[in-house]
Amino acid sequence: MLLSRFWYVLLSIAVGVSLYIVFLAVGQYNRRQTIVMKEGLASDSQTVEWALKIDSRRRLDQLSYGSLNPAVQKSLVDSNGAKDNKVPQKAREETTKALKAVMEQIPSEFKPDALFAVDRDGRVVGQAGFDQVAANEDFEMGGYPVVFDALHGFLRDDTWALGDKLYLVCARPVETEAGSAPAGAIVGLKEFNRSYATDMAKRTRTNLAFYTAGKRVASATGTEGFEESQLELIGTDLAKVGDDKTYEAGGRSEVRMLRDDLGVMYARLPGDAWDLHAGFSVIRPKVTITSPMGFISGADDKDKSSVPYLIIVPVLLLAALIGIALTLLEHTLPLREMVGQAERLKVGQIDGLQIARFRGAYRGIAQNVNGGIERIVEKGGGVPRRPADLESILGPVPAQPAMSAFAFPMDGQAPPPDRGSGPNAMPPPPSVPGRAPPTPPVLQAQQIQKATPPVPMNIASQAQAFPPPGAPASPPVPAARPAGPPPVPGRGGPPPPVPARAAPPAAPPPPAPLPKAPMPPGDEMDDDEATMVAQIPAEVLAQATGESKADAEAGEWLKVYEDFIRTKKQCGEATDGLTFEKFQHTLRKNRDALMQRHGCKRVRFSVYVKEGRASLKATPVKE
Amino acid sequence: MSTFANRSSSRSPLFRFVAPRLVAVAVALAVAAALTCAGGVIAGEAGKVKGKVTGLEKLVPDVYSESADSKNHRYNWREGSPTVPAQHRALYGSPSKEVCLAAFGGGNANPFEPIKVKVTGGRTNPAMLVVPPGTRIQFLNVDPFPHKLFQVNEPKWAPNVTGPGSNRDWTAGSPGRYEIRDELFPSVRTFVVVEPQVSAIGYPSRGGDFSIDKLAPGEYTLRAYFNGKPVGKDQPGFRIPDKGGEVGLKTDWNISPAESK
């Protein structure tokens, strides 16, 4: 379950990091949007200002139609020359008629709302489009700086706030002859009304409002999706914009927030209206995201289509597959194995769970279950199964040092301790056909010392070396026999035939010192003392050095045998009766059992010392 | 009521004949005396002085020079017409409205008759006045939109809306220089100089010609005012004879600011 848990932790970290990043993204997005809105408003304000300048210039140029109109020029000259200091009526009529014609000449895009012809003293000689002064002979315009400048030979624009209306004013001189002072001026007025605001908003793609004296006079939207009613919000803010020092000094305010999602920037209009705080404002919405879900709700089809699904989906599937695989490996498969074994246990195919097929916690469970089964069996009077060891296979090994090598069992030897109890008690051989007895990889030779009395054993009788529970103890093993396999007293059976090649010599000569057997890693063994073992029969050696596989194995086992004998001696243990044939037979049996269980090709045995006694370790090799 | 009626009916016919005539004579004498005092003409015929001022092209109103300065945010475009000579592009004011020529007598003068000042066209007409204390000035709005006049640094004459066709009075107080402005039209700047000894005022034409009439016999000096301040040198004294008549200045009167120095 370790990998699954690790995967869960990884996924949790990934989810946490993702959420963290998304929340960070929300904050960054909103911050960026604020900056974008401010930069956008500054850009809008600048754009509108430039557009107004260009528009003003073009309107100024269009006034050439009036300044070059002969009728206008003549009327102005006549007015300047009037003796009674009054504008002649004839000049008024002719000028008004001429100005109307001029209005028709100017393209509609730049056509002014009103047109005036002003004489040198500033008196209005004629007008078109401003009929409220048609009968007002006192009305004049010479005091306005823009008109004053035009009367002195300047082309100029201006802004006026006349009543509650705001005007863009352009004026240029009317010259009758080169080198002389202007005869008068032509003045055009264009009101900042809704029509003008709409045109300007569309041209600049902004949301625009003109205002004067703290009141909005015209507004229009030039961007899609922006509600015009939002422009009304500047009404309450206009009274406060005067507090903005930047606005007062430079004419353009900082970005002000009408709402959390609506920004505005004010700019004053150059001209006489500057002092009246007349100007224009541009408004922009700020797109904010209040939560990570806003990214989803605010996304359109284009956003969704640009998501790299080819990356996301495989990553998602891969993560899911890894998770499923890990849970399958660590949860489902062991569970299934346990279910299967439990079913087999239920029908009697096995006597206990096969611990080696489990890992981790399942192995512990299996061990506990097996332990429980054995305890129940033991309570019921049966002999509990115990891990097989070398003793159970080789039979009891005499504990007395007086026993000669391979001369066991010896008569008169004290019986071994009770095998049916104690932690090292061996289970009986498996009674179910086809069922291998549980053989631990380590065969503890020292257990032999505690086993049943040393009874001469052959291959066939090994299974009988362990009496069933309740059976009488075997007689003591006699002392070492000089030659030949020891009989099995009490068993009644003849001694097993000993293969010729494996038969020990009747009187084995003192064995020559054998080369030191390789020890398993970690073994701590004193090599100073040479081990003397019985001489190996030539047949055995011949078998051991043969080219066949069996021979190679026999040779290997012979080395193990020699090593085992030497180690036992070094540990001060008796080696009497422990013949190579027995040893070989036992190893073969173990090998077969292990090969059947693990499906390995061969089993390698090695010798090591455990708790001061020589032990054998069997290692399945699958190569 | 009945008692008053009874007393009247008891008067004699002679009284009823003489009394109305005495009242008429008394009223006539009073009217003559009042007219004499108001006009300043105590005795003799009223005279006038004529002459010509020069240096007008040097008198540039502050409001227009300020407006021409690009630092004051008054325009987007301002460029001189290449066909208009430079001397005509000088922003000199309109003499008939902005240059006031005042005649000073020997003693304090009575207040002038109320003076009507038209407010229109981004300025007042006239924009420069010199009056004795007590003179009432009526600012008449002849524009089709409201104005909001106020006296600079005088809370008592604070900005107040003067609708189209309406007027607002201002009365000259103690001697000094006063400035009237319009909160809605920054180009409106009217200067009133209150001088106790000013007897009459006049305005020159574009060419510089001027005449000041209604001058009682006596010694006078002339002084020109522009932008609320005297400009040029005072014109040497002249005398209006007892029989009145027209007095002409022998030389042109240069009122350019350079002459002030």
List the SSEs and their pairings.
The complex is a heterodimer of chains A (623) and B (261).
Chain A lengths: L1 H61 L1 H4 L2 H11 L8 H17 L8 E6 L4 E5 L16 H7 L2 E9 L2 E10 L9 E8 L2 H11 L2 E6 L2 E6 L13 H5 L6 H6 L5 E4 L2 E7 L10 E7 L8 H4 L3 H5 L3 H39 L12 H20 L10 H5 L16 E2 L29 E2 L2 H5 L27 E2 L58 H7 L4 H22 L9 H19 L3 E9 L2 E9 L2
Antiparallel strand pairs in A: 1-2, 1-5, 3-4, 4-5, 6-7, 6-10, 8-9, 9-10, 11-13, 12-15, 14-15
Chain B lengths: L1 H8 L3 H27 L7 E8 L7 H6 L10 E3 L14 H4 E6 L10 E6 L2 E3 L2 E4 L4 E6 L5 E5 L8 E3 L4 E5 L4 E7 L6 E6 L3 E5 L6 E7 L2 E9 L2 E12 L4 E4 L4 E2 L2 H4 L1
Give the terminus-to-terminus CA distance of chain A.
29 Å
The major pleated sheet of chain A works out as:
5 strands, antiparallel
Give start-end ranges of low-pLDDT stretches of chain A. Answer: 397-534
Count, helices of chain A: 17
Helicity level of chain A, as a percent range?
A: 25-40%
Structural class call of chain B reads alpha+beta
Tell me the total number of β-strands of chain B. 18
Could you explain the architecture of this structure?
The complex is a heterodimer of chains A (623) and B (261). Helix content of chain A is 40%, strand content 15%. In chain A, the strands form four sheets. A five-stranded antiparallel sheet of chain A has the order 2-1-5-4-3. In chain A, strands 7-6-10-9-8 form a five-stranded antiparallel sheet. In chain A, strands 12-15-14 form a three-stranded antiparallel sheet. Chain A has helices at 2-62, 64-67, 70-80, 89-105, 145-151, 194-204, 234-238, 245-250, 294-297, 301-305, 309-347, 360-379, 390-394, 446-450, 538-544, 549-570, 580-598; strands spanning 114-119, 124-128, 154-162, 165-174, 184-191, 207-212, 215-220, 256-259, 262-268, 279-285, 411-412, 442-443, 478-479, 602-610, 613-621. In chain A, strand 3 and strand 4 form a beta hairpin. The radius of gyration of chain A is 57 Å and the shape is rod-shaped. Chain B is α+β, with helices and mostly antiparallel strands and 261 residues long. Helices cover 19% and strands 39% of the residues of chain B. In chain B, the strands form four sheets. In chain B, strands 6-12-11-8-9 form a five-stranded mixed sheet, with no helix packed on it. In chain B, strands 1, 14, 17 and 18 form a four-stranded mixed sheet that branches. The interface between A and B is large, with 49 and 43 residues.
